[in-house]
Every structure is written in structure tokens, then in C-alpha cells.
Amino acid sequence: CGMCERTIVPKCHLKTTILIHTEKNPYSCSICKKTFSFKSHLNRHSLIHTEEKPYSCSLCKKCFTQRNDLIRHSTVHTR
């Protein structure tokens, strides 16, 4: 990367690194106007507005918008 001293391998990740350095956020939420560097982050954010919670705990049926939240929650059942 020409902006930091990191060696980016594979080269396809260089675009990602440059977006982080330039703080360009080409993806914008049509509801709240918050911007994101990556379309996947916008898609994840959009769940906030739709109140969609596609991830549910099989033990207690609690629902989450993000998979990582479900994974973190699952530890309450293993204590």
C-alpha cells in the first residue's frame, strides 16, 4: 500500500485498504444517509431500519440482526 507500510496480499485487498485510508464511503443508506465503505456493511446496517432479525437462538428463540450477536449470546446457555 502506498499510504501505509503494509504489504497487501492478495492484491485484490489493496482496494479495500485504500478505501479505509481515503475514508471514501460510496454506499449510502437511503433512510438515514449514513455512509459505508462496503456494500456488505450497508446491507448489515439496513436491518436496523427494517427491524428484521434473521438470526435466532435455537434454545430460547431470542432474535438478532447480526450473526455475531447470536454467537455471543449463545455463551449464556453454556455457562
UniProtKB/TrEMBL annotation:
<dbReference type="GO" id="GO:0000981">
    <property type="term" value="F:DNA-binding transcription factor activity, RNA polymerase II-specific"/>
</dbReference>
<dbReference type="InterPro" id="IPR013087">
    <property type="entry name" value="Znf_C2H2_type"/>
</dbReference>
<protein>
    <submittedName>
        <fullName>Zinc finger, C2H2 type family protein</fullName>
    </submittedName>
</protein>
<keyword id="KW-0804">Transcription</keyword>
<dbReference type="Pfam" id="PF00096">
    <property type="entry name" value="zf-C2H2"/>
</dbReference>
<dbReference type="InterPro" id="IPR036236">
    <property type="entry name" value="Znf_C2H2_sf"/>
</dbReference>
<keyword id="KW-0539">Nucleus</keyword>
<keyword id="KW-0862">Zinc</keyword>
<keyword id="KW-0677">Repeat</keyword>
<feature type="domain" description="C2H2-type">
    <location>
        <begin position="55"/>
        <end position="79"/>
    </location>
</feature>
<feature type="domain" description="C2H2-type">
    <location>
        <begin position="27"/>
        <end position="54"/>
    </location>
</feature>
<dbReference type="GO" id="GO:0005634">
    <property type="term" value="C:nucleus"/>
</dbReference>
<dbReference type="GO" id="GO:0008270">
    <property type="term" value="F:zinc ion binding"/>
</dbReference>
<dbReference type="GO" id="GO:0003677">
    <property type="term" value="F:DNA binding"/>
</dbReference>
<keyword id="KW-0805">Transcription regulation</keyword>
<keyword id="KW-0863">Zinc-finger</keyword>
<keyword id="KW-0479">Metal-binding</keyword>
